[in-house]
Amino acid sequence: MNTRIHELAKTDLPGEEEVPMPPNPGDPGPEQPEPPSPDPTQDPRIPPQGDFPRGV
């Protein structure tokens, strides 16, 4: 019985119930996103394959 009341109580509270732990000095933590990998489709230096003729 208590499990159902506990679930309702958790959903009633607005916001995040889980408090994030402080980041460790040696651990980058999930708050720092990884640097985006170079994507050739989103690189402004490389034109899309439809901009230049292929039959050269």
UniProtKB/TrEMBL annotation:
In this chain, composition skew of type Pro residues spans 20-47
For the region Disordered, what residue ranges are annotated? 1-56
Q: Where is the composition biased (Basic and acidic residues)?
A: 1-10
Highest taxon of the source? Bacteria
Q: Protein name, please? A: Uncharacterized protein
Organism in which the protein naturally occurs: Sorangium cellulosum
